[in-house]
Write the structure tokens for this entry.
Amino acid sequence: MPDNTQSTLSLPPGPEAPFTVNTDQATFDIIPEWLDTYGHIVKVYSDTRDKSGYLVNDPDMIRHILIKNPANYIKGPGFERVKMLLGNGIIVSDGAFWRRQRRMIQPAFGKRSIAKLCEQVQQCNQELLNEWRLKAENNETFDLTYETNKLSLQVILRVIFSEDVDYLVKLHGSDPFEFLTEDTTRDLQVVLKFRSLIKLFQNLINWRREHQPERHDFLDFFMSAVDKESNETMLDKELIDELMTAIIAGHETSAITLNWSWYFLANHSTVEDKALSEIDAAIEQQPASFEQLINLKYIKQVVSEALRLYPPVWLFSRTSIEDDQIGKYDIPAGTDIFFSPYYMHRHSEYWENPETFDPERFNVENSKQQRNQIYIPFSSGPRRCIGDFFAIVESQLHFGMMLPEFKMKVVDSPSLELEPFINLRVKEGIRVILSKR
Ligand code: HEM
């Protein structure tokens, strides 16, 4: 009998020519053309994967896949390199194992736990503040992108290992994490270097078991986490994969967010003034308390708007397990689904003046009216970013400390050319100069 399944399906429109969607420049460049030509759902055949994928840019369809029927979708393509880096960490795992890991890890990212970690984050920012004071005094022009990258790495390492970062450096004989800011390619060499940290982490885990030091950090949390349903704890291998995941997931994403938030603050003096007034009114003396920080609502609006225009995770994906339907279209089992926060956030059908930087989009009133699922920098549904709250607090703390001291100016207007890899970066670091207020 002839196979006529395909002909009875209702499939979205799309280009004839094969194309393999990936976190790369070609995909970044072609998406706007597709959305213009075919609308909010586009079917494209990949000859290298030998199957079709859909690019979905419709809030209701996104809601269906990520929130209503997430059990039918596993992580999609584009994670191959991340998998090499992260083993079976929570960002790449699926099914029952992912659910167990998420249950165990989730409380570490809750309000109470993050409040305890604030001191570590404050310390990292204090060190940067001292360095920036010198830069300001010397009228030094420097690379903001590199600096935010360095800061975010320190922050994520300190919240995971607290003072034992120093122990790891001592054990290793030099800074074992330096390559993460010095070599941002994430190529195979970086993968190998990163995976070689396994031994180092295992040593630290053994040392903690033996010495039982009192620590408030993610490692302590992960080591003592017990799954409520199975009563299981994590094996060391699983634990190490989760540490690696937190480092990779929490480093560059936060760095990019700080980078762009600073860029916009430096170029929008009314926004900067409003942010400063908020900080002045809320924080009487440094260091600010956790409650004061999370109440910096306008800073949160600024950061949210930076994340709208430059979402670090600009493309992510799922693959359907069984046949499904969105709108009038069929999704056969095994279809790859791609979402692009970058293009979703800039679509003129969902946003007024989408290219304009305007933190008022996220004030209480406007947020209430915002359509669901048009703003997805942290994804949505049960697999939404586990570090979303932490990332915002990290930014509130950073600006709460830095903005009252420094005025930033962007020098020699940089190209701002983007590099759309796993994360959306700037090709050349943004060059800035600071003056003391
Ligand atoms: C502004 C900063 C950040 C952005 C934009 C961001 C974005 C995202 C996105 C879009 C996803 C979901 C991907 C998908 O659905 O396939 C995700 C997942 C995740 N993120 Fe973040 N992230 C940020 C910061 C962080 C931080 C600071 C951490 C940890 C300290 C973190 C840890 C994770 C983890 C563990 C997952 C996987 C969650 C799961 O699958 O259950 N992220 N993030």
Q: What stands out?
A: Residues 5-436 form a domain with the Cytochrome p450 fold (CATH 1.10.630.10).
